[in-house]
Amino acid sequence: MNADPRPAGFGTTAASGGAIRLSLEVIPTPIGDMLLVADREGFLRAADFADCEDRLARLLDRRLGRGGYALTREAVPAAIAASLRDYFAGALAALDAIAVRSGGTPFQQTVWQALRTIPPGSPLNYGRLAERLGRPQSARAVGHANGANPWCVIIPCHRLVGADGGLTGYSGGTARKRWLLDHEARHTASA
Q1: CA distance 17 to 39
Q2: All structural domains of the chain
Q3: What sections of the sequence does the record tag as coiled-coil (predicted)?
Q4: Catalytic residue chosen out of the listed positions 157, 161, 180, 181
């Protein structure tokens, strides 16, 4: 058994005394266990499905530096986990209550903020989001920023679709993306 409390793939180098201390909680969802990573100030630093653990580790390493964080298996702030559970129970606006913090370029942060403005049940294509940002020629850049989103579901990258409305890349897989879009459409229609 591994004595390191971090799951395999997470920052295996020893953290220095100045490392950011992070909590890791695994919560069940209807589409697979999710990993939630939060800091001591109550901000969600990252979230992804458990089978995407390696991606989450790479994003944390990129944003905080290898060895720049110490990850401990313990509960994240109760409000974060409760908001995510509420979302999966049909209270779609519950995601808005989750405060996030991460690095990222100014453009990535702009895209991530814009993703939160896409209403549930109303998917948008990459080109339209680029237009909303005043950068109509930047659909591909929007796609790259979307792919670097460290908060799966919470920052709703699943709400972006291809120009023809087709499902395009999603780190959790297209079956999950379809489930999330159907879930939001169902609960938006019943509201």
Answers
A1: 15
A2: 20-97 (3.30.160), 106-189 (1.10.10.10)
A3: none
A4: 157
